[in-house]
Every structure is written in structure tokens, then in C-alpha cells.
């Protein structure tokens, strides 16, 4: 594991520290997809104390489920079951694009999100990007990490390299609408949901209006 000294140079966020770390660079990881697909502009605007990259096959050990648990139930199935799910998702090529933000100080995940590319018969065999599972560690909220995750996922969705989705959509609670509006989305239509009986036994998420990227 390399030792990294982190010296923030400039940022709009309040994160600021300098320390030794066990940060694992991209070339030492088995990544879900090529990091070159992530828009360079988003990487350039990140605070230097964090790193944004595709999910890796060892991110279970970096607190992936713990970060997702700020969003909803994320019970721990154990590493081998987690890895099986990772491989099952990766075996559908050009479909799932899960990303994470890592603290360089701790090598732990502080934010996560995914865009899923849906192929359609309409709109000239068009594609739609579905943003899912956006979560930022409670201690790191308010530092523009959520914004960077959404910018990266929207950039991926619209990228010609992965097929160029004609729109990007997501569901969110009423209280998160202002956040997504700041990310360039606007409210459209409504979401409908029917939970399977076994899922209905769990506490239900709040009402979730549908938000779409401006076209
Ligand atoms: C919602 C969430 C992803 C936002 O991430 P974040 O890193 O805290 O947000 P950012 O710092 O990137 O915010 C970007 C802008 O949106 C604003 N914003 C963020 N959340 C907001 C909210 N709930 N209401 C109003 N504005 C909000 C910020 O103030 C900031 O505005 P500014 O540019 O004027 O300073 C994060 O709070 C979170 O993980 N919440 C719990 C899980 C969740 O609800 N996920 C979303 C599921 S749809």
C-alpha cells in the first residue's frame, strides 16, 4: 500500500487535512468499468482529499454498505455474496455504471451512486439513464460530494462512449428535490410503486416524485 500526503489546494468545501494514508490507486484495483469514461471535468473539480472512481471488487471492505445504509436498508450479506452480486451486475455489459467517492485519508467510501443504461425500441432505439442509490456519508454531507456524484453519473449517461442516453431520470423524496434541482434536474410526472408482500413488511420509503434531467 502506498503512502500519500494530501495537501488540499483549493476547494469550495470545508474538508481540509494532511496525513499519511493507505489510499489504494485505481491501478491496484479490479474496477467495474474503465475510469477513463468518467468525465475529466468532474474529476478536476473534486476536492483533492477525495477520489472518484468506478466501484471496485474489494469495496465491500471500504464501507460500501455502510454508506448505502444512509439511504435505506442495506443489510450485510457477507463479502462472498456481495462479490457474487458485483460479478452478476458486471456480467451485463454496458448496463451498470456504479461509482464511489473515496476519502484519500482513510481509503473508505464516503459517497456512492449508480447509473443504469436502459435500451429502448422507441426514440430510434434510444437509451435512458436511470440514476439509483445516491448516498453520501452523514459526516461528509454538504461538501458537494453528492453534486459531483450526480455530475459524474449524468456525464456517463450522456456520453457517446456508452451510447448517449437521450435523458437521465431518477426518483427522490420531496426534501431532496432542491438538491437535484441544483444538479440541473427538473420535476416531471410522478412515480408509482407496488411493493412485493415480503418487502411491504419493511418500513416504506417516503413519496418519491420523479425528477428528470433537463433536455
Ligand atoms: C441528498 C444527498 C445525496 C446530497 O449530497 P450532499 O453531498 O450532502 O449535497 P451537496 O453538498 O453536493 O449539495 C449540493 C447543493 O445542493 C444543496 N442541497 C443538498 N441537499 C439539499 C436538501 N436536502 N435540500 C436543499 N438543498 C440541498 C446544497 O446546499 C448545495 O447547494 P449550494 O450549491 O447552493 O451550496 C445526501 O444528503 C444524502 O446522501 N442524503 C441521504 C440519502 C439520500 O437521501 N439520497 C438521495 C436518494 S434520491
From TrEMBL:
Protein origin, superkingdom: Eukaryota
Q: Which InterPro entries match?
A: Acyl_CoA_acyltransferase (IPR016181), GNAT_dom (IPR000182), GNPNAT1-like (IPR039143)
Q: How does it sit in the membrane?
A: Peripheral membrane protein
Q: Which GO terms describe its cellular component?
A: endoplasmic reticulum membrane
Q: Where is the composition biased (Low complexity)?
A: 10-21
Kindly state which keywords UniProt assigns to this record, in alphabetical order: Acyltransferase, Endoplasmic reticulum, Membrane, Transferase
Q: Where in the cell is it found?
A: Endomembrane system; Endoplasmic reticulum membrane
Q: How does this polypeptide assemble, per the annotation? A: Homodimer.
Stated name of the protein = Glucosamine 6-phosphate N-acetyltransferase
Its taxonomic path starts at: Eukaryota, Fungi, Dikarya, Basidiomycota, Agaricomycotina
